[in-house]
Amino acid sequence: MPQRDLNLLVTLDVLLAEGSVARAARKLRLSPSAMSRALARLRAATGDPLLVRAGRGLTPTPRALALREKVGPLVADAQMVLSPAEGLDLKTLARTFTLRTGDGFVEAFGPALIARMAAEAPCVRLRFAQKSEKDDGSLDSVIDLETGVVREAAGPELRTQLLFRDRFVGAVRKGHPLSRGRITAARYAAGRHVDVARHAGQEGPGSGPVDEALASTKLRRDVSIVVGGFASALALARASDLVATVPERHTGTLRAGLFSFALPVPVPEIAVSMLWHPRLEADPAHRWLRGCVRDACTAGPRRGVSPRIARSA
Q1: Which pairs with CB-CB distance under 8 Å and at least 24 residues apart come from 62-67?
Q2: Could you say which of 51, 81, 111 is where a domain stops?
Q3: Are residues 33 and 108 in the same domain?
Q4: Are 163 and 291 in contact (CB under 8 A)?
Q5: How many domains does the chain have?
Q6: What one-character DSSP code corresponds to residue 278?
Q7: 305 pLDDT band (50/70/90 cuts)?
């Protein structure tokens, strides 16, 4: 199939509207000779003279009259496609956004996010997808946004924005020996610990940042249980003498009813970000979504607010 010069549609639209080569040339800012050449190309493309001499002017052929009813809407649609998107009407926006998040995000930040969306865009739906061992760091066409720590496996093309910084805290059941007295590094390390490793290839137990901090004091945790998420770790700590070490802000709600304490060794903070595919960068609805998530995390539970964090040595 031969390639068609779609620019001729604009020329045809103006020619049929003006009924004059000279007036069409002025409207398109072309010379009369250039417009005459364009008309010759249109005649060759359509196999019809389109405009024929009638006295001092030109009159459209039956084919030209039939085309005039079609070409105008075609040109208008093309101009709309090649124009910036119109302003976003949140009240009528009907769309489902899928967010891939880790343990505790919905509990900690979901209420503020849901309230904001319900007030501004009542027709929008949210779907929260839990992270799993199969996630490879990429964002396919199903995932609109992901929150978490940016991993090395994440695609280099992904867009990222920092949401907040979090720190690790310890959590034990009420009445646990660590809930009484001064928490030293030795007492903390001596407990039986439950560790979190979401991915099968992740570092083994006793090899994370908490363990590196303990190693500088010649101490080592006894990690006897490994689970795939913070919620599971906290559930075990609630029902046993296990010690769970989890991010503070991410698990504020999940730690309700537990005794939480600051770690007795300095551990680097973690940076929690949101990630999205560049195909969504300029989408007005997605920009609004990113703003909602960012504001919800800013307004979410802050360090040391709830539950209360006990100081340690």
Answers
A1: 64/16, 67/12, 67/16
A2: 81
A3: no
A4: no
A5: 3
A6: G
A7: very low
Q: Is the pLDDT of residue 272 over 90?
A: yes
Question: Residue 257: how many CB atoms within 10 A of its CB?
Answer: 11
Question: Distance (Å, rounded) from C-alpha 250 to C-alpha 246?
Answer: 8
Domain containing residue 206 = 166-270+304-310
The residue among 113 and 4 whose pLDDT is bigger is 113
- The first and second tokens of residue 254, run together, are 């999940």
Residue 114: partners with Cβ closer than 8 Å, 6 or more residues away: 126
Number of H helices, E strands in the chain: 9, 13
Tokens representing 180 are: 């009484």
Name the residue among 78, 23, 85 with its Cα closest to residue 51. 23
Tokens of 276: 């999205």
Specify whether 265 is located in the same domain as 294. Answer: no
pLDDT digits (tens, 9 = 90+) for 45-95: 888 888 888 877 788 888 888 887 788 778 777 776 666 656 789 999 999
Residues 238 and 252: their CA atoms lie apart, in Å, by: 14
- Give yes or no: residues 289 and 155 share one domain: yes
Residue, of 29 and 183, whose pLDDT is higher:
183
Report the candidate in 82, 11, 79, 76 with the shortest Cα–Cα distance to residue 45.
11
Query: Do 154 and 198 fall within a single domain?
Result: no
Q: Is residue 2 part of a domain?
A: no
β pairing state of 222-227 and 159-166: unpaired
What is the model's pTM? 0.69
